[in-house]
Write a structure and sequence with these properties.
Strand order of the largest sheet: 1-6-5-4-7-8-10-9
InterPro entries: Methyltransf_16, SAM-dependent_MTases_sf
Organism: Rubus argutus
Protein name: protein-histidine N-methyltransferase
Subcellular location: Cytoplasm; Nucleus
Mean pLDDT: 84
Structural class: alpha/beta
Helix content: 10-25%
Enzyme class: transferase
Length: about 300
């Protein structure tokens, strides 16, 4: 009998082919891909997508599996900075985050009902999918790579949210009234495209008839703080997107990412230095499978 494969991939700094260190922080990064909205109809028909269940306590979600080599012509690489940021793998933090969000709801500390939700660095999108199933009004998924959204995130949403299967796949509204949309781009630029973000250069909220004060009530992110060079950009994007004064951010990640220098504590030092948001730990996971993982909640002081 074949042994059961783990439902997540541990963080690796070296490719399994032994080709060497993956984080080439000294080399200049290529220009980021353009920021685009990816429509549900833009699922890649040529990439093989298989689905399997993930058990999260009393909750079962479906997760897709696609080949990194098939999508990006990369062989077993977790990330290639500036080209591919690991979105095709299911990291432990996304599972930790879904479990923590479920606990927060059960404890009466959180409700997604009627809320605007943004998942940054979504990959599989399981936390955002959980928000869909918990009756959020709008759920927007963001990933660095449009290919991740086309080959994995959108198929995952289709698999888990039956109401999000309109006949033309062009619509973004579910039968239940949820708005589900997908955006690709770098954290330094993607706010210009997000419907509920502060955009001084070209205020999309005003042109779309939405209040310029309308931002995201809840921001979700898992395993987004591994690279020191992006922490400030991520934090600045959060400030452009989060609703004041009651918006909250839920972050799941490792305490330290050895070899690349990032981690929850490094990111929280950026938050603390700015002095606008307060942080509180929601969960700590020390199961021996990796270095310590944490879930944190950020809210306005």
């Amino acid at each position: 009998m074949e042994s059961e494969k783990p439902s997540f991939e541990p963080f690796r700094l070296f490719s399994s082919s032994g080709s060497g260190f993956l984080e080439q922080s000294e080399a200049p990064l290529p220009p980021p891909p353009p920021c685009v909205e990816v429509l549900p109809s833009e699922i890649s028909p040529s990439v093989k997508y298989t689905v399997e269940p993930v058990q999260l306590g009393g909750l079962t979600l479906l997760k897709g599996r696609v080949s990194t080599k098939e999508v990006f012509t990369l062989s077993n690489s977790d990330l290639v900075p500036g080209k591919y940021e690991g979105g095709l793998k299911l990291w432990e933090g996304s599972l930790d985050l879904v479990k923590a969000l479920s606990s927060e709801i059960q404890n009466g500390h959180l409700s997604f009902t009627g809320k605007r939700v943004l998942e940054l660095g979504c990959g599989h999108g399981l936390p955002g999918i959980f928000a869909c199933l918990e009756s959020a009004a709008a759920i927007h998924f963001q990933d660095f790579n449009a290919e991740v959204l086309q080959c994995l995130t959108i198929p995952n949403v289709n698999a888990n949210v039956p109401s999000f299967q309109p006949p033309t796949l062009q619509e973004t509204m579910c039968d239940t009234g949820e708005e589900i949309r997908f955006f690709a781009g770098d954290w330094r630029e993607v706010h210009k495209l997000l419907p509920y973000a502060q955009n001084v250069e070209n205020d999309l909220n005003i042109s779309s008839g939405k209040s310029p004060d309308a931002r995201y009530d809840i921001i979700l992110m898992a395993e987004t703080v591994y690279s020191i060079s992006t922490l400030q950009h991520l934090y600045e994007l959060i400030k452009k997107c989060i609703s004041r004064p009651h918006g909250v951010v839920y972050l799941a990640a490792k305490k330290h990412y050895f070899g690349v220098g990032g981690g929850t504590r490094r990111f929280l030092s950026v938050v603390e230095k700015d002095g606008i948001l307060a942080s509180s730990m929601v969960a700590e996971v020390a199961d021996g499978s990796s270095n310590v993982r944490e879930v944190w909640k950020l809210s306005f002081k």
